[in-house]
Automatic annotation (TrEMBL):
Native species: Thioalkalivibrio denitrificans
Transmembrane parts of this sequence: 287-304
Name of the protein in question: PEP-CTERM protein-sorting domain-containing protein
Keywords, ordered alphabetically: Membrane, Signal, Transmembrane, Transmembrane helix
InterPro entries, per database record: Ice-binding_C
Secretion signal span: 1-20
Keyword Membrane found: yes
Length: 311
């Protein structure tokens, strides 16, 4: 079965006191792709994706506390730890096939999930268009892709991620433009879910471009994500990442691990899996983030227990 990655980026209405876990937003691509007179998409509740090819790299025994973890979908990071594609024998003696993530099929947002009826203003899942698009569609239809590289370690109670980022890109067959960064600064593990937390960021090359700054728009405040982020420490956006590990265990089994050699004599253990999930946003002042996150964890924990009780 496919491991389900649910990403909740807590962003929503500025100065909101609600505990709803997702807030409405729109995407502004800067042109009208469908002839309705607007450069905006419909109102979006979440970004959905399926089949992300995730590679976990363990620099030591995954069952031992303190072992470093790198989780990524970036080829060059995988290469730096000795990765090679093809058929391999696992530590447990079974045979698995490892591959580099397909670009964009295993690195893309596959759906804009609208609040009610919505229109994507030329959005596609990024697999057919803009990739391989021909004129006049090239440069009109668009998609969203992402690269990520996060770091953490095994703990006495499971695992913890403390650094790294997800870089989000707009692509339309002509351009590939980074439009957002999601920084990871911490995590929390319970029996059903791994929660990754951190702020959004525009600290990347090209973030001074008007297209980038206007790309994500919070519906309730009418402000762009960039405006909210740039307003100061009191109004910067907090992000909660929620990794649902109900299907695959947080700690890999021996039959999932393949050993590769890097730096001549060092060994890294690799696991690959496919992830599904969604990204939601809620805009809140930073001091409210912990309260909101706590409420979200309680709600998600209840939902996870309810799912288990129903199966």
């Amino acid at each position: 079965m496919i491991k389900k990655l649910v990403v909740a980026a807590a962003l929503g209405t500025l100065m909101s006191t609600g505990t709803a876990f997702g807030s409405a937003f729109q995407i502004n691509v800067g042109y009208d792709a469908t002839g309705d007179g607007s450069t905006l998409t419909g109102v979006i509740e979440e970004l959905g994706y399926t089949g992300t090819r995730a590679t976990s790299i363990y620099l030591g025994d995954p069952s031992v506390a303190g072992t470093q973890i790198i989780d990524t979908n970036i080829d060059s990071v995988m290469d730096s730890y000795g990765f090679s594609a093809g058929s391999h024998t696992t530590v447990g003696g079974t045979t698995v096939s490892f591959n580099y993530p397909l670009d964009p099929q295993q690195k893309n947002i596959s759906a804009l999930n609208f609040l009610g009826a919505g229109e994507g203003n030329g959005f596609t899942d990024g697999v057919i268009v803009p990739y391989g698009a021909t004129a006049p569609n090239d440069g009109v239809f668009w998609g969203i892709t992402y690269d990520y590289n996060i770091q953490g370690q095994i703990t006495a109670t499971g695992l913890e991620f403390t650094s790294g980022s997800f870089d989000v890109y707009f692509e339309n067959g002509t351009d590939r433009i980074q439009v957002l960064r999601l920084d990871v600064t911490g995590s929390q593990l319970d029996p059903a879910n791994l929660y990754l937390t951190g702020p959004i960021s525009y600290d990347f090359a090209g973030a001074d471009d008007a297209f980038v700054q206007n790309f994500f728009v919070d519906v309730a405040s009418g402000m762009t994500f960039y405006e909210l982020w740039a307003a100061g420490e009191d109004t910067k956006l907090g992000i909660n990442w929620i990794l649902d590990t109900n299907i695959d265990p947080p700690i890999p089994t021996l039959d999932q691990l393949v050993a590769f050699t890097y730096d001549d004599d060092q060994t890294a253990l690799f696991r690959q899996t496919n992830l599904d999930g969604s990204v939601t946003f809620q805009v809140v002042p930073e001091p409210m983030m912990l309260t909101l996150f706590g409420a979200g964890l309680l709600a998600l924990g209840f939902a996870a227990r309810r799912r288990r009780n129903q199966t």
